[in-house]
Amino acid sequence: MSAAPSEALVELRHGVRRVLLAPHVGGAIAAFDETRDGRVIDWLRPATPAALAARDPLGMASFPLLPYCNRIRDARFMFDGALVDLSDDGNEFAHALHGNAWRLGWRVEEMSASRARLHLLHEPSREAAHHWPFAYEATQDIALDADRLSVTMSARNLADRPMPFGMGHHPYYPRTRNTRVHARVAAMWHSTPDLLPTHAGPHPCIDAMASSDGMSADAFDLDNNFTGWSRTATIAWPDEGRAITLSADAPFDHMVVYAPAAHPGLLCVEPVSNVADWVNLDVARALKGGVVLEPGESVSATFAWTTRIG
């Protein structure tokens, strides 16, 4: 049985390192930082007081993506011979976006000084405003230690029928003129102007990210999915002598990079298990990701951020 819904921030600490969780704001991480010589070092972009007051998941440091990642074209798809219509579910975007877990309150189920478990129960009949038609439950086990912050995401299909499913997390990193991104990927999903995927193929950013210097966060205008990810990526601030490495287990086999030219303060490098609109893409599963969970079936995977100074 879950505890009562939390309306307060939850603080985890390990030495000089701190994580703030906002369970009531989509089960989000509000901050991940450490204090050295009186100076606060932000590893993720911290939520502002205004974002917290507005309960805005897009203003958090990172938030969970469940039961799918990124967009679904026109908020509709066919599954198991039936139309799944996600329009008018309270999402303000033209295409369904990021699932529903980021817009629901999570419960604090367990907690210690440096660990917490957050729990979400989605029942369609009780969540009419967020009408993903399949019942499911999800947990986030969040642990902070001297080197890294890890998140184990788990989900179980509570419906009496199969459920299409994907998961991920949506972290924002501090972006400066000197921020570099290092990663190895096989291909980038090119997309339409409204960011729906068209085909996977080469792009100059792939070689840039794989180079010894990495890719400047300002080099390209990106909001794209990548496939064939090695499941590790490093965001570095060489002028500050620090870096953070994102690593992930399968099925986080895809990566999203959001580095928009129009918003030079934003940078996301996200571990995800499915590319945008995967439920409508007629391509091999290895290219698009996603799974189908049978009734009662579960999936679980861990990703982590490891930090380095010097």
From TrEMBL:
Q: Name one Pfam family in it.
A: Aldose_epim
InterPro entries per record: Aldose_1/G6P_1-epimerase, Gal_mutarotase_sf_dom, GH-type_carb-bd
The record ties this protein, via Gene3D superfamilies, to: 2.70.98.10
Q: Which domain of life is it from?
A: Bacteria
Q: What is an annotated GO biological process for this record, any one?
A: carbohydrate metabolic process
Q: Name one GO molecular function term.
A: carbohydrate binding
Q: Write the protein's name.
A: Aldose 1-epimerase
